[in-house]
Amino acid sequence: MGGAPGFGGPGGPGGGFRGWGAWAERIVVPADQVFPLPDRLSMAEGAGLLMNYHTAHFGLLRRGRLRAGETLLVHGAAGGVGTAAVQVGRAAGARVVAVVSDERKAQVARDLGAETAVLAGEGWLGRALEAAPGGVDVIFDPVAGDRFDDSVRALAPEGRLVVIGFAGGSIPQLAMNRVLFRNIDVVGAGWGAFLEHHPELKAATHAELVRMVEAGFVAPLVGAELPLERAADALRVIADRQAVGKVVLTVRPEEGRER
User: Fold this and answer.
1) Is 178 exposed, middle or buried (0-12, 13-18, 19+ CB in 10 A)?
2) Which end of the chain is more exposed for a tag (fewer CB within 10 A), N or C?
């Protein structure tokens, strides 16, 4: 729900970013925030591509330095940005271990390409280390909270923990001696803040994601589509942790214009 889809134009369908005020039937978006959408994606799928996949690409490939053959662990792997990380990680050639809250979401993660899916409430650290005995190379973490300490323990030497957000509700603290003696990196990935200083990355990142779509690795999962007037219901789906993939608000189509 962080990106607002555009309605296209003479050049074909497109979508745009709007940080605030995007829940409306018409919005104005700066030209440098509008990107073409691949023909194989619907407008709802395009809404997921714009925000979630840009964040996952930046977090994994630039900040996390993920390489082919490495093991990637994704927290919240059935959510909007989590499903994006699973697919971008697979596109980069990584093995993916997904951490989710229930078996329904575990199946979602497996369907998207995760090799292993473990439940957060059932000793996820031990299960993850069974799948990656030497530790994982990169952790994509939009949750933090009480999982953070075990995430640090899950890293292999020279592993990278990429902090995306704090959906777990608390901001953890880290004893730096653990970073020093275990030879690990803990890095932040604030895509929006980074773009303030490197706006040229938007177009380059989008072009890379379009290639992943065309190669068949990326297909944004839309878990729910609700009309704009039910925006409160959409927020409840997210707040109640029932969402899988992207929750999208749609607007009424106008004559001569696609949704």
Assistant:
1) middle
2) C
**Sheet (strand 3-5) strand order:** 3-5, 14-17, 34-36
Cα 50 to Cα 44, 69, 174, 189: the distances in Å are 10, 27, 32, 16
This prediction has a pTM of 0.89
| Cα–Cα distance measured from residue 2 to residue 85, given in angstroms and rounded to the nearest whole number | 16
* Side-chain half-sphere exposure of 46, counting CA atoms within 13 A: 23
Cα separation of 84 and 86, whole Å?
A: 5
State pLDDT tens for residues 83-141: 999 999 999 999 999 999 999 999 999 999 999 999 998 789 999 999 999 999 999 99
